[in-house]
Write a structure and sequence with these properties.
This protein is mostly beta strands. The chain has a single domain, classed as Porin (Beta Barrel). The protein is built from 1 helix and 10 strands, in the order αββββββββββ. The protein has an 8-stranded antiparallel β-barrel with strand order 1-2-3-4-5-8-9-10. A hairpin with a 3-residue loop joins β4 and β5. The longest helix has 22 residues. It starts with a helix and ends with a strand. It comes from Gelidibacter salicanalis. This is PorT family protein. Keywords: Signal.
Length: 225
């Protein structure tokens, strides 16, 4: 249901932009694109010891080409599954080790594509709204591992991260009108760990607030129709 709402938002948004330019009697061209690629994901935080992990991403774009402007605009909706390593240990007396987590995200973005070399090379920048799934332990046998820097917080306790976040995206696209390669960096402006602050970890001696910001790099190939 949440993904359907995101798709509806993109459709309504691109329709409103197209109508706005049409009312100005300016020639525009709408294009639909499909894209997919790989991600490198991390959470920048002082609470945990993390290691970035790889994942995949795929999505749909709806763009408005503006030949009379120095930029084009587009709306994108994308899904990704990301991995992340966090240090934890079986017991307080054990040495720590890296355990893997997975997280699924759904993102909607409005991007402005500044033309450096016409449509062949652009700088892409814009805001993004993200729905974030649970942060899940990949190996069930490690769910009760104690997170490094804590005495009562376990790996399974980290699932309840903040579901809605606001990001900023910046990147570069290069290629032709029907095919482009895009490198994009996505940074989370909101605290993705904030919901953990509502939890009561009885007996925990580390009282520092949970705070972290998403950091993701995506390399994708885009085909436009």
């Amino acid at each position: 249901m949440k993904i359907n709402l995101l798709i509806l938002l993109v459709a309504l948004s691109i329709g409103s932009v197209t109508e706005s330019f049409a009312q100005q009697n300016i020639q525009t061209r709408n294009r639909i694109g499909l894209y997919g690629g790989l991600t490198q994901f991390d959470i920048k935080t002082d609470n945990f010891i993390t290691t970035s992990g790889q994942g995949w991403i795929g999505g749909l774009s709806a763009s408005v080409d503006l030949p009379h402007k120095l930029y084009n605009v587009s709306y994108t909706i994308q899904l990704s599954e990301n991995t992340l390593g966090i240090n934890a240990k079986p017991t307080l007396a054990s040495p720590s080790e890296e355990i893997d987590f997975t997280m699924i995200t759904a993102q909607v973005a409005f991007l402005v594509h500044v033309k450096i070399i016409q449509d062949y090379l652009t700088i892409d920048i814009g805001p993004m709204i993200q729905y974030t799934g649970d942060l899940e332990v990949k190996n069930n046998s490690q769910k009760n591992y104690i997170i490094e820097n804590y005495s009562r917080v376990t790996a399974k306790d980290l699932y309840k991260i903040s579901p809605f976040n606001v990001n900023g995206a910046v990147g570069v696209s290069a290629g032709f009108k029907s095919f482009k390669l895009r490198g994009q960096y996505i940074y989370g402006f909101t605290n993705i760990l904030n919901q953990l602050n509502d939890e009561n970890f009885v007996g925990e001696t580390n009282t520092s607030k949970f705070k972290g910001n998403q950091s993701m790099f995506a390399l994708t190939a885009l085909i436009k129709f």
